[in-house]
Design a protein that fits this description.
With 469 residues, the protein is of the alpha+beta class. The protein is built from 18 helices and 15 strands. Pfam families: BACK, BTB, TLD.
Amino acid sequence: MTSKFYSNISKALAIMLNDSDDYNVIIQVGENPNMKEFRAHSNILKARSPYFKGAFSDGWIDKKDNVIEFKKPNIDPDVFEIILKYIYTGEVNLDEQSGENIIKLLIASDELLLEELFEHVQDHLIEKQTSWVKRHYVFILHTIYKLSSCKKLHEHCLESICANPRPLITSKDFITLDEDILYDLLKRDDLKIEEIDAWENLIKWGMQHTPGLGNKNNNKTKWTTRNFEALKKTLSKLIPLIRFSEISSSDFYDKVRPFKTIIPNNIYEELVGFLMKNTLPKKSVILPPRIRIQIESKIIKQRQAFIITNWIEKKDANASRKKEETTYKYILIYRGSRDGIDNQSFEDQCIMDEPTLVLIKCQNSNKIYGGYTPVGFYEEYGEEFIYSKDSFIFSFEENEGTQNMELSRVKSYDHAIFNVYNNDYGFNFGDHDLYMQDENLYIGYSGYYEDNLSGNDYEIEEIEAYRIE
């Protein structure tokens, strides 16, 4: 057995950092008047950071008296001090750092290719700095927008805004949003906003970003044709993202019609036809209503919940939905990380004869599996199998959202759900087509469901069950 004494190594390296008598690197960080020099050791920096390994190659460095001189004017000295301590000791404490400093640390750790630190900082912002993030959505999004590695934080901000957009759209920061960020918000199906509000705020944003308009010229009755043409150009990418079919006829007349000249002709004509006939053509240029499905899942996104809802109604996965058809509510009744991942825990929470959805995230896999039963899983004194003609099982690929989806509907209605009254399983669709046994998920094929689901055996990382209203 190998004994490990990492703490002593960390202490020794901390002493090296603090004393640094034998340093061979001087790093000048920041700019006047906020500039500071740090002394360090090239071998440690190269071993811990791919960035420094490349930067200290012969073609990059300047030396004076065999000491490498290096400049990083774009990094704040307080932030670099945190980074240097992390490089030498593997320790970082963010609890007393301001949100601004943590964002700076995120950007710097990304630049220096410190992947472990970068992920830790990103998770800290999402999990521990929730209130600060909510107050500074625009600042954060503008800072990280072009960093592909910040996808997790970027998505977290957009999802949080979509869940409650009013604080943002009523703030003075809204009109400063970059066009690409506003585009990403408006195109989302899960943006919980009344469409007329989206339209009015889009017009306000457009006026502020159009030369000749804005606060000094906000009375549209005095606008020239050139003013309307300029606004149309500003909003050309964004107007098609408005779900015009959700705007009432009265709001259309009062708030949309006056801006007729900035709306593309094909959209405007189709909207007028919709208001008169209450129907859209099959190939509509107007986007379908946004999703009104309530689910608080750690496993799937709103778009996947939308698809599952369509499957429940036996529709195509991406079929559009009328506003009144999107009022599904998924009520969480079981979560493995909260209630325990085992047969008994599942049974304790999920014994009911009501429509139930199960979602499973597996360890060491990018697959998400699930199953739907309109009749529940248990009949205490019932037959071995429970009858259902509408059950199905499915899978998504976690990183691809709705790509490579698999759907398998029940074929043998009298063998839809194995009645797990003897507690051998948490749940069992068909006869071992998709089933839970303690902390494991298994995928098989009995012939009772369509042969459309691929997979093997997995250890469950997270599992959720929902009662559906």
